[in-house]
């Protein structure tokens, strides 16, 4: 909460925390979609400090657990494997999904422009995969991170990132609003069974 008490220090603190998070995402093979939502949602408002701190703690825990081999020995049969190797595989599958989305969501001209922008030769093979493999890889280059987030957002159909809900990150301090229909949906569903 220091950031809220001294707003003049918050912009520098935000940049430091943002860079720490970006580095931890890379070390933990965090989902590119998660990175994108988080990066585009939290832009430096002092109220974001709690979300930044929670993300740092979550990622630090994962990194420490992976580094100590803790998850490997604690994985129970039937539970999701949360090892570093598993995370790397999931990240690779996510990159392949984004590669397929490039084909679906971008025109030929847009793809060619994207290849040029990302430094992929137009005469090379597997250009889409080359671009997908470059996303979110230069963790110290904030412009690269912005471009990566922008492309991922476009590929997944996130048209208005500012309208994403902070609640998706598991921290909602606002009371939940239930409509009568959603709160008692079992009543409405029951009539269709009669």
Automatic annotation (TrEMBL):
GO cellular component terms, semicolon-separated: microtubule
GO BP, one annotated term: microtubule-based movement
One Pfam family hit: DUF3490
Example of a GO MF term: microtubule motor activity
Taxonomy, superkingdom: Eukaryota
Keyword Cell membrane: no
Residues annotated as domain NPK1-activating kinesin-like protein C-terminal: 13-175
InterPro entries: Kinesin-like_fam (IPR027640), NACK_C (IPR021881)
Assigned keywords, A-Z: Microtubule
The name this protein goes by in its record: NPK1-activating kinesin-like protein C-terminal domain-containing protein
Species, as recorded: Aegilops tauschii subsp. strangulata
């Amino acid at each position: 909460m220091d950031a809220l008490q001294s707003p003049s220090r918050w912009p520098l603190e935000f940049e430091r925390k943002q860079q720490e998070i970006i580095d931890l995402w890379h070390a933990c093979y965090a989902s590119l979609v998660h990175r994108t939502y988080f990066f585009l949602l939290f832009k430096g408002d002092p109220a974001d400090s709690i979300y930044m701190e929670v993300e740092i703690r979550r990622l630090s825990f994962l990194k420490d657990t992976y580094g100590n081999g803790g998850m490997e020995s604690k994985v129970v049969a039937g539970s999701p494997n949360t090892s570093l190797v598993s995370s790397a595989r999931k990240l690779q599958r996510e990159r392949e999904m984004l590669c397929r989305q490039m084909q679906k969501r971008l025109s030929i001209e847009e793809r060619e422009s994207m290849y040029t922008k990302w430094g992929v030769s137009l005469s090379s093979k597997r250009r889409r995969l080359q671009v997908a493999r470059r996303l979110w890889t230069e963790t110290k280059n904030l412009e690269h991170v912005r471009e990566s987030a922008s492309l991922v957002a476009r590929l997944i159909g996130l048209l208005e990132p500012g309208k994403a809900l902070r609640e998706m990150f598991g921290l909602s301090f606002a009371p939940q609003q239930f409509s009568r229909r959603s709160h008692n949906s079992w009543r409405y569903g029951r009539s269709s069974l009669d």
